[in-house]
Amino acid sequence: MRKRFLTPLISGLLLLGACDDGSSRGVPEATPPAAVAEQRPDDMIARVGDQVITFSEITATINTAAAADSSIPAYGTPERDDFHLTLLDKLISANLIYLDALNQGLDRDPAYRGMIEVHSDAELVSLYRETALAREPTVSDAEVEAFYQRSDQPQGELTDAMRTAIMATLRKHKQQEQPDRLWAGLREGIEIAINETALDPGQDATRAASERVATIGVETLTWGDAQRKLPSLHAAVTTQDRLELLNNFADYRILVQKARAAHLDQDPVYKTRIHEISKNHLVKLQRRKLLAAMEPSPEEIRAYYADNRHTIATPRMRKVQMVVAKTRKQAVDILNRIEAGELTLSKAAAEYSIAPGAARNLGETGWVGKDTGSPALDELTFALAPGEIGGPVESSSGWHLVLVQGMRPPIHVSIGNEATHQEVRRRLLQERLDKYTDDLRLAGAKVEIYEDVIREQARRR
């Protein structure tokens, strides 16, 4: 059964400060004219307008989440399939917001384009340094001969084995010196001209934005540019401090220029990365813009709380002890022995449970809510009375026998409580954003989901 289409947007979308108007040379376009390849990728599971969603994106998101959250459902389980669909919902929602932002021309926003230029330059510098430092240093025959003559080797012919060893030694030394060589020769052939009079802090109030501060290779830096690109310039209280900042900035700009001269801005890895960053930034920017327009009034927040009070509470909790068996048969056998008085649940957990730490904590997992990731396990846990044992039920971890040791009812909190007020506001905003995204689809946004590919990819992985 397909999950509900709309869910909250992807968490973790990047947002960094913007500092430029985007008018500088080399700002990449926010979106390629044809973001979707003519040939359909083998693992394409959905299309939103001209945006493709692949199963690889789902897998990458799961792998990232799994690094910080061990509760990701296991392969081949129904919970894993549900998790795939939940993530797909989020990706569809994010793509609809992205296309909506493009339709509204938000990609031409100066602050947005400034952000993308900052990221573009940083990616180019990183790629240039990686490329330059990854080059295998060359060693000439003359260098080998000179090294041999300086060494304490016995006089005689330089053998092939000795030549190979010397070349390896010289290459290692050059590799270690490469970072220093990169910086030492950085400015060779590049014109740098700094107008020190334009750096006098005492003249800031009257200095025109168009006044030239520096020429760095093919770029001219004006005072207005320097204020945007070097915000720390104002904190520097002397001309000398500003000169040092500007020289460091000049080195950075030279790296960017050399990266472009080497056509690294055409590198597929760079293009993919910048497109991802551009897209994520635009989604975040549009989402913030929409939420600002949807801000509820105090009266709307109180009315929403009154209508939904029963769902806005500290959730019910259960104190749980459990045994997790490998198979249903083993779980049933354990349950029969417990009910016959041959075995306690604590002893069963210590001797037979496959749950991590069960031998140490005797299966006691403490207080839990309805958020285990297994609907069947949640349903059982919250249906049991204190002191009652139930099961077995299956989850991605195994077959569970559950004992409820205690229970806490839900706690309703007054709307006057700040935390409750913020939770109500968050829910109301999310519902409005969900409706907005749903309306985009109803208004004609083309969304296609290829469920056969989802099933095939899930089976293969």
- What oligomerization state is this entry in? single chain
CATH structural architecture of the domain at 316-409:
Roll
Overall shape: it is extended
- The class by helix and strand makeup works out as alpha+beta
CATH topology of the domain at 316-409: Chitinase A, domain 3
Rg calculated over all Cα atoms: 31 Å
CATH class wording of the domain at 316-409: Alpha Beta
- Which sheet architecture does the biggest sheet show? 4 strands, antiparallel
Helix content: 40-55%
Percent of residues in beta strands: 5-15%
What is the mean predicted local confidence, pLDDT?
82
* Strand/helix succession: EEHHHHHEEEHHHHEEHHHEHEEEHEH
Total strands: the figure is 12
End-to-end separation: 20 Å
- Detail the poorly predicted runs: 1-25, 30-38, 66-70
How large is the count of helical segments? 15
Give the strand order, joined by hyphens, for the main sheet: 8-7-10-9
Note the main attributes of this structure:
single chain, 461 residues, alpha+beta, 3-stranded antiparallel β-sheet, 12 strands, extended
Any overview of this molecule?
The strands form four sheets. This protein has a four-stranded antiparallel sheet with strand order 8-7-10-9. A three-stranded antiparallel sheet has the order 2-1-12. It has a three-stranded antiparallel sheet with strand order 3-4-5. The protein has a domain of 94 residues: Chitinase A, domain 3 (Roll). By secondary structure, the chain is an alpha+beta fold. Helix 2 packs across helix 8, helix 3 packs antiparallel against helix 8 and helix 4 packs across helix 5.
